[in-house]
């Protein structure tokens, strides 16, 4: 039966090439944009190199401090003393790590100004992340205890500073008032990975933290790894309880507001959320509304094209009705035909998306080099294609199925 529908669909497409071209163009363009958007969101929030454990990772990017007596409040990243005194001692996570915000420094080479990013991390950072070491190794807790200043650099940093053939291992350079030795080279992390992306990674004992040891805020983020994804809620509960046990909170004067969130929740909370909600539901709702609104106008155009195409088939419809075909069977036939056309357009859109993503990855446009058409993106593309086919095919199919036999046989609509 499906084979017959496919043959009929191909015959219908050949009958009016202009209508077919307009339909396929609208379908391809609409689905292409949605597929590229899906791939980009999957790149931003999915488990991708080097953050392959995102399904069981939580992040603490900031903490807000409110004084109930004066009404004063402030918000910022975490300090090293706060992390060591409280977060490091949490029991629920399998492992916790420290990573600073991204800093920048400039260097001159052959009268050319080069700008690189760098951040400070602790050794556990390398256990939570899944960096691919091209040479050398990460710094360890023994290095920290020995006050050894060994650093890790990215592959692009090595190429720019030392050339394609030379190795950066063993090279030294000055950071502030300290001399660091390069002990490892890793494959680059995309710039969209704000937690893991940098040109140079330095051990956190190189950071000159001049803050008061009791200071809560600083320049660091916390990364908390759960044993299994289901343990993330246990970590969040322990983290919330820990905030209530801070000295100022116990006395009742201070209120501390911070969240251990997934990377998606970090983004949605900053954009749309508040203390009560992460804003994730609103984020998905807005994405859904955008997708539907983006499909509505092309769907309306396709509805008109489908109606015109079906009007050319009134005699065929009349014959089928005369031989006992029910409205249900006609609706089913037209929906299958329209869905097959949409899936064909979706296939072309997937091919075009693959070519575009390959160009983006090859040229590393905006630092992107990991946009992919994986099974998640492919599955969503198929679902969107089916939805688009139904959206643009239901009304024409229903309208044609309601035509009277006498009208269709005489070619009168």
Characterization of this structure:
The chain has helices spanning 2-15, 17-45, 80-85, 124-128, 141-145, 155-162, 232-244, 247-251, 263-272, 280-311, 314-322, 327-363, 375-401, 405-409, and strands at 57-60, 63-67, 73-78, 95-100, 103-109, 112-121, 133-136, 150-154, 172-175, 178-186, 200-203, 217-218, 220-225, 254-258. With 413 residues, it is an alpha+beta fold. Helix 1 (2-15) packs across helix 12 and helix 10 (280-311) packs across helix 13 (375-401). The longest helix has 37 residues, at 327-363. The two termini are 28 Å apart.
Helix content bin: 40-55%
What's the gyration radius in Å? 29 Å
SSE arrangement, N to C: HHEEEHEEEHEHEHEEEEEHHEHHHHHH
Mean pLDDT comes to 83
Main β sheet profile: 7 strands, mixed
- Poorly predicted ranges: none
- Number of H- or I-type helical stretches: 14
Strand segment tally: 14
Globally, the shape reads elongated
Distance between the termini: 28 Å
Please identify the structural class as seen in this structure. Answer: alpha+beta
- Beta-strand percent range: 15-25%
């Amino acid at each position: 039966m499906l084979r017959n529908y496919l043959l009929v669909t191909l015959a219908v497409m050949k009958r009016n090439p202009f209508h077919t071209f307009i339909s396929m163009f609208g379908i391809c363009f609409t689905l292409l944009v949605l597929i590229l958007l899906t791939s980009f969101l999957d790149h931003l929030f999915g488990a991708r190199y080097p953050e392959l454990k995102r399904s069981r990772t939580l992040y603490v990017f900031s903490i807000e401090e409110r004084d109930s007596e004066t009404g004063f409040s402030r918000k910022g990243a975490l300090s090293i003393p706060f992390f060591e005194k409280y977060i490091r001692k949490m029991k629920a996570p399998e492992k916790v790590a420290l990573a600073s915000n991204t800093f920048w420094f400039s260097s001159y080479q052959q009268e050319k100004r080069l700008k690189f990013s760098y951040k400070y991390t602790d050794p556990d950072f390398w256990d939570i992340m899944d960096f691919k070491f091209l040479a050398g190794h990460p710094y360890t807790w023994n290095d920290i205890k020995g006050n050894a200043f060994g650093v890790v650099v990215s592959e692009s940093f090595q190429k720019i500073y030392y050339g394609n053939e030379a190795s950066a291992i063993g090279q030294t350079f000055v950071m502030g008032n300290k001399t660091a030795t390069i002990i490892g080279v890793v494959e680059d992390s995309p710039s969209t990975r704000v937690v893991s992306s940098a040109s140079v990674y330095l051990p956190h004992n190189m950071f000159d933290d001049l803050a008061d040891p009791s200071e809560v805020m600083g320049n660091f983020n916390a990364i908390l790894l759960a044993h299994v994804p289901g343990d993330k809620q246990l970590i969040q509960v322990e983290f919330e309880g820990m905030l209530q046990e801070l000295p100022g909170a116990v006395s009742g004067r201070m209120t501390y507001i911070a969240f251990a969130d997934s990377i998606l929740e970090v983004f949605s909370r900053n954009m749309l959320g508040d203390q009560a909600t992460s804003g994730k539901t609103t984020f998905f709702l807005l994405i859904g509304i955008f997708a539907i609104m983006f499909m509505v106008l092309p769907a309306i155009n396709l509805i008109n094209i489908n109606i015109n195409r079906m009007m050319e088939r009134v005699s065929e419809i009349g014959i089928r009705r005369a031989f006992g075909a029910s409205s249900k069977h006609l609706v089913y036939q037209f929906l299958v035909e329209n869905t097959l056309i949409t899936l064909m357009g979706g296939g072309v859109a997937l091919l075009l998306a693959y070519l575009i993503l390959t160009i983006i990855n090859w040229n590393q446009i905006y630092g992107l080099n990991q946009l992919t058409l994986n099974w998640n993106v492919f599955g969503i593309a198929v679902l969107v294609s089916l939805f688009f086919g139904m959206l643009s095919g239901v009304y024409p199919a229903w309208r044609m199925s309601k035509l009277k036999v006498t009208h269709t046989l005489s070619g009168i609509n």
